[in-house]
Each structure stands twice: as structure tokens, then as C-alpha cells.
Design a protein that fits this description.
This protein is α/β, with parallel strands linked by helices and 236 residues long. It has helices at 41-49, 71-78, 95-106, 112-122, 125-129, 139-151, 169-184, 196-202, 227-234, and strands at residues 3-12, 15-25, 30-34, 56-61, 64-65, 80-83, 157-161, 188-193, 205-210, 213-218. Strands 6-7-8-3-9-10 form a 6-stranded mixed sheet, sandwiched between helices. The chain starts with a strand and ends with a helix. Bound molecules: adenosine-5'-triphosphate and magnesium ion.
Length: 236
């Protein structure tokens, strides 16, 4: 097992945002986490990367307990890549600088050319954007840059928060292809997604979350057989 989040509870002020949440990811596996707005998807990802503190429960990554390990150590040393839902592309830096920032800070990865080749093989579009400032990138381009930045640190696990949000259907297809290519590189992926159709397309296994609790875990396609569950996920 690559990641085990075991019965974690997370509070933000007086609000309990995650309740006894358990998520497991095998090495190289792609899973999707689906739930309506406010269900707890971002909170789950932020707890895995360490931006939210866990009140009880354990997080184990690659055989090591990381429950209290700081986020930058999880990202740069342990190999957990994170692309946040708002992309966080710096407007004044070029695409190249945005992507290489993590490498420069980590001082761990030496071969920038190799990283460039990996990124261009997944997002050929980024080559043309290389010297463009973040300010002039479209929403979809920023999502690519954000994913590329996480990939540049050669993660074992990639956390993608709302990777397809706001993208046109044809661009969603493009991103799903990219996710599959990343998977072929042996990287495990967690995709948080509010659209259940997209979530079911991308994951080998699917978790559904509502009110901070996991309410389904299993085969993605089976979720379409349970109308009650679908209504909760779609927020009806
Ligand atoms: N920093 C915070 N302060 C207060 N409440 C928070 C904070 N972070 C999350 N919450 C609350 O926790 C719940 C879960 O939020 P979260 O962002 O994890 O949901 P989400 O599933 O990612 O939603 P969305 O699809 O809208 O991105 C929400 O009710 C939210 O208001
Ligand atoms: Mg969110």
C-alpha cells in the first residue's frame, strides 16, 4: 500500500470537516474522490499533503507514518505531489519558472532537462507556453502548469484537486489522457472531482464523500446503479 489514511478526523475551528475518513491507495493506482461542493474533497487532499492537521487517526505513506510531517517535507522529500484547485500559478513568473520553482527549492532533483522531457511528453502544449508569464495563461493552461509543477518533483503520488473543473468537454478528454499517461509512468493519482461522470471515467476505484464521511468505496461504474447515492453526490 502506498497511502493509508486511517480513520482520520480533522477540525477547522469548531467545524469537523472530516469524520473517521479512511482512504487507501495502492502503488500506481488511480482513484477518484467524488462529492458535491463542500463535501470535504479539498479537506481530504489538504490533510494528505499536511496543510490541515489531523486530530486523530493516522496517515501512512510508503511505509512511514507521516501524520505530523510538515507539508514541504511530504512534497519535496517523500514524493507527494499536489495540484491545488485554484492552480496557484504565479502571474509574474514564466511558465518555465513556475514549473521549476519546486525543483530549485528542493535541491533534490538535478536533471532539469529530463524533467522538461517528461513534462513535454505529457503536455506538448506547454512547450509553446514555456516563456509566457503566468498572468497570460488561460484557466486550462494554468491547470496544466500546476500539474506539471507537481510532476517536476517526481512524485510517487499525485493529488489533483478539481483537475477538470471549468474545462470544455474536449479539454476534459485531453486531461484524462494526460492522467492516463502519468499513471503509465507508475505514479499513483488521487483525483478530487465534483462531476460524477468525470470521476467515474478517470478512476480505477472510486470513493464518494459527503459531510466529511466516506459513503461509498468501490467500482466506479457501480455507483450509477444506486440512485440514492447519486442524488447525494449530485447534491439534490
Ligand atoms: N479553512 C476552513 N475554515 C472553515 N471551514 C472550512 C475550511 N476548509 C473547509 N471548510 C469547510 O469544510 C467543508 C468541506 O470543504 P471542502 O473545501 O473540503 O469541500 P470540497 O468537497 O472540496 O468542495 P468544493 O467542491 O466546493 O471544492 C465545507 O463545509 C467548508 O466550508
Ligand atoms: Mg474543493
Amino acid at each position: 500500500m502506498l497511502l493509508e489514511a486511517n480513520r482520520i478526523n480533522v477540525n477547522i475551528g469548531p467545524v469537523q470537516v472530516l469524520r473517521n475518513l479512511t482512504i487507501n491507495i495502492e502503488k500506481g493506482e488511480t482513484i477518484s474522490l467524488v462529492g458535491r461542493n463542500g463535501a470535504g474533497k479539498t479537506s481530504t487532499i489538504k490533510s494528505i499533503i499536511g496543510l490541515y492537521q489531523v486530530k486523530s487517526g493516522k496517515i501512512i505513506f510508503d511505509g512511514q507514518e507521516i501524520t505530523t510531517v510538515p507539508p514541504h517535507v511530504r512534497a519535496t522529500e517523500l514524493g507527494i505531489g499536489y495540484s491545488p484547485e485554484d492552480s496557484r500559478v504565479f502571474p509574474d513568473l514564466t511558465v518555465e519558472e513556475n514549473i521549476k520553482l519546486g525543483i530549485w527549492l528542493s535541491r533534490r532533483i538535478k536533471d532539469e532537462k529530463e524533467i522538461e522531457e517528461i513534462i513535454f511528453s505529457i503536455f506538448t502544449e506547454i512547450k509553446k507556453l514555456w516563456k509566457r508569464r503566468g498572468l497570460y495563461c488561460s484557466g486550462g493552461e494554468k491547470k496544466m502548469v500546476s500539474i506539471a509543477r507537481a510532476l517536476a518533483l517526481k512524485p510517487k503520488l499525485l493529488l489533483l484537486d478539481e483537475a477538470f473543473e471549468g474545462l470544455a468537454p474536449i479539454v476534459v478528454d485531453r486531461f484524462i489522457k494526460a492522467v492516463n499517461q502519468i499513471k503509465e509512468m507508475g505514479i499513483a493519482i488521487l483525483v478530487a472531482e465534483s462531476n460524477v461522470n468525470n470521476a467515474a471515467r478517470v478512476g480505477e476505484r472510486l470513493y464518494a464523500i459527503d459531510r466529511g464521511e466516506i459513503i461509498y468505496e468501490g467500482e466506479p461504474q457501480k455507483i450509477f446503479q444506486d440512485q440514492t447515492l447519486l442524488n447525494i453526490i449530485r447534491g439534490y
